[in-house]
Amino acid sequence: MRYGIYSELVEEVIQFADSMQDTLKSEVLGNIEIMTDINEAIQSAFNDTFGDDEYSWSDIRQIEIGKVKGKLYKLDADQKPNNLEELTEDISKGLRNSLPNSLNSFFENVVVDLRNCAINRAINGQSNNFYEQIFSIYRAGGFPCGWKGDYPESGKIIAFFD
Predict the structure, then answer these.
(1) Residue 111 lies inside a defined structural domain of this protein
(2) What's the confidence (pLDDT) of residue 92?
(3) Cα–Cα–Cα angle for 133, 105, 102, nearest 5°?
(4) Residue 23 and residue 141: Cα distance in Å, rounded?
(5) Which of 13, 16, 143, 156 could form a disulfide with 118 if both were Cys (CB 3.0 to 4.6 A apart)?
(6) In this structure, is residue 103 part of a structural domain?
(7) How far is Cα 63 from Cα 69, in angstroms, rounded to an integer?
(8) pTM (two decimals)
(9) How many domains does the chain have?
(10) Is 86 part of a structural domain of the chain?
C-alpha cells in the first residue's frame, strides 16, 4: 500500500494521467455548467472572479484542497497516507505524453488538479466532494475551469468540453 489504505484509488488517478487521451469517457458526477469555447475557458480559469467574495478559480481550488489537507493534519501518524510528495512528478510524467492537445495550455493546472484529486482520495477515499467531482470531469473528457454562483454557498463547477 504505497499511499496508505486508499492506495488503489490514488493509483487510479495516476493511471488516468498516464493514459488521459486514450481513456474512455465516463459520465460526469454532479451538476456542472458546460462551456465549449476555449477562449472563455481560458478567461474563466485565469482571469474571472466568482461570487461576492470575488474568488478566482485558483482561490477556490486552494480553499478546497486546504479542507482536505486540514483533515490530513488531524490524522494520527499511523493513519497518514505515504508518498504524497511524489504525486506531482508521477502525474506530470504521465501527462506529458497523454494530455489532449486541446488542454496543452492548461498543463500545470491539470497536474495540480489531478495531484489534488489523488491527495483527496488518499485521505478521504472515494467520497462525494469537490475533488472527486473534479476527477469525474476529467474522466468525462472535460477541463474544470471556473465556478457559477456564489462560492461556497451555492453554485456549481464550470467545465470546458472540446
Answers:
(1) yes
(2) 95
(3) 70
(4) 9
(5) 13
(6) yes
(7) 10
(8) 0.92
(9) 1
(10) yes
**How far separated are the first and last CA of the chain, in Å rounded?**
36
Give the mean model confidence (pLDDT) for residues 122-142: 93
Which tens digits make up the pLDDT trace of 79-97?
888 888 899 999 999 999 8
The values of phi and psi at residue 148, to 5°, are -110, 120
Which tens digit of pLDDT belongs to each residue from 32-41? 999 999 999 9
pLDDT over threshold 70, residue 24: no
**91: nearest Cα among 83, 81, 102, 101:** 83
> What residues contact residue 12 under an 8 Å CB cut-off, 6+ apart?
121
Please give the radius of gyration of the chain, using alpha carbons only, rounded to the nearest integer.
Answer: 15
Q: Where are the beta strands (DSSP E) in 16-162?
A: 32-35, 49-50, 55-56, 142-148, 156-161
The C-alpha atoms of residue 16 and residue 24 are separated, in whole angstroms, by 10
Beta bridge partners of 147: 157
